[in-house]
Amino acid sequence: MTFTKSVLGGIAVSALVATAAFAEEWKGWNIHVEGYPNTVAMDKFGELLAEKTNGEITLQMFHGGVLGSQPDAIEQVRAGALAIGNFNLGPMGPTIPETNVVSLPFVFKDVDHMHRAMDGEAGQKISDGMAAKGLIALAWYDSGARSFYNSKKPINTPADVQGMKVRVMNNDLYSGMIQELGGNPSPMAFAEVYQSLKTGVVDGAENNWPSYESTGHFEVAGYYSLSEHLIIPECVCINADVYNALTPEQQTAVKEAAMESATLQRELWATRETESRDKVMATGVKFNEIADKTPFQEAMKPVYETYLAANPDIAPLVELIQSLQ
Ligand code: GTR
Q1: Which residues, 6+ apart, have CB-to-CB distance to 173 below 8 Å?
Q2: Ligand 1 geometric centre to CA of 256 (Å)
Q3: What is the pLDDT of residues 137-174, one digit of tens each?
Q4: Domains and their CATH numbers in the chain
Q5: Which of 106, 154, 164, 249 has the smallest CB count inside 10 Å?
């Protein structure tokens, strides 16, 4: 066909073929709703990815957990059914023991301590553990500190958790944590928590301010008690085979795009924490600080013992984090 030949002739044809050969469209998973810092940052990641690879790689994001629960999505990225996801390290623990160090209650003193650990040797060891299981951590996102909330009463001491049914993420460490407080843990997917709180299947749950707000949990569990027992980082994680098949230039572009999206996410996170807190407080949420967190720390100690007995190799990593000033 002369028209095709003349329009797509010579160099133009090889250019098109070359582009087609390198064009990849990735599918990405995210659990959060529109406007949430992670959602905005993952969309930004997609934009930067296309820009920095000159369109060789594009990203189609699926927000709101529509492609499945977080434990399933982690497996899908490991298996390569999905290229990428923004994951909390909590639900990764059952598969990747190194990631479980961040799920030990009170292992980080505060968010700054978590940043120092994740940006240093501890973060590297955690990344290595993830890479050995097929996941490359490109950048770390913030997820603040998680505190208890429930529909019954303020929590001030472990005794207040006695007999309470508390939703946790799928990870035995969290179930152990609730059991040590005398409560009944109920592991379930994020998407099921609202209905479970509303119908009394559970009395409470635990999360940061933005998730407490964005999910509407504050409407059905109006007591928020500032325990800050978990500070769990999140990752932008890619399937290792997908990443390793890229050219060095593409790998740099992907990494840079993820790091820049993380800078944006951390900024948005800081603002959103205050906004979410103000928003739920304005609706009448009853908030309390916990004057002395030591009884919680003491009660949760057996969680460390059980974990380290089953994973003795991880002990140095726990010490590394704890000794970091
Ligand atoms: C949020 C986190 C989600 C998910 C959720 C949960 O804070 O960003 O990835 O882990 O908590 O409690 O399931």
Answers
A1: 93, 100, 103, 104, 303, 307
A2: 25
A3: 999 999 999 999 999 999 999 999 999 999 999 999 99
A4: 25-142+232-274 (3.40.190.170), 146-231+286-323 (3.40.190.170)
A5: 249
